């Protein structure tokens, strides 16, 4: 029970929800293993955390590459001898209408949001089975709960991960916990991946008006982790009170 001493690997950890989660868990005594593509940002975060007394390491990780996820998990094992939690957080959302035909953006969301999560599960699952303990946390989205224009492919990838999470939970047996967390509007750089100017402007305005900080999601992740081993928090939805 609790967070102190647990080894937690987090993808997409260089900013936003991933960074906020790593910070909170490190403050509560976890050993955090950070993965993201921006190595310079990861190095700065690790230096900040360790200077404050936390335990953190990083490894450059592109979730589109299965070998990178395998390397991240192996890196955690190398440093700590085990892995307790994998947070599949990396995600992108280049939103657009279907008739804009931004097929490359569709492919990118499938590669990062869906394949990246599957690659993380594939890397961690053998370790969790060997340990007879472990926790997979997948970051989904309220976009998959309330379907709206421009979010068709994004919501589809997130709902695919929702389905994967529930199936994995049922298959996992009594020693593996599985949690999916659906954030609403969060104050992150989410809009930076949007290539459609009109949609990007609308999302940035929406974030500015109603978004809550990434730390709100970090607290939800911490709550799921800190439960006793026989308690599986299956699903959490966290959104601004002002969100429709």
Nutshell version of this structure?
The chain has 244 residues and is of the alpha/beta class. The chain contains seven helices and seven strands. The chain has a seven-stranded parallel sheet, with helices on both faces.
Can you describe what's shown?
The protein has 244 residues and is α/β, with parallel strands linked by helices. The protein is 48% helix and 16% strand. The protein is globular, with a radius of gyration of 17 Å.
Strand order of the largest sheet: 3-2-1-4-5-6-7
Distance from N terminus to C terminus (CA atoms, Å) equals 35 Å
- Gross morphology is globular
Largest sheet geometry: 7 strands, parallel
Question: Roughly how much helix do the residues carry, as a percent range?
Answer: 40-55%
Strand residues, percent: 15-25%
Radius of gyration: 17 Å
Beta strands, count = 7
Briefly note the structural class of the backbone.
Answer: alpha/beta
Nearest-integer average pLDDT: 96
What ranges have pLDDT less than 50 throughout 5 or more consecutive residues?
none
- Total of DSSP H or I helical runs spanning 4+ residues: 7
> Could you state the order of secondary-structure elements as H and E?
EHEHEHEHEHEHHE
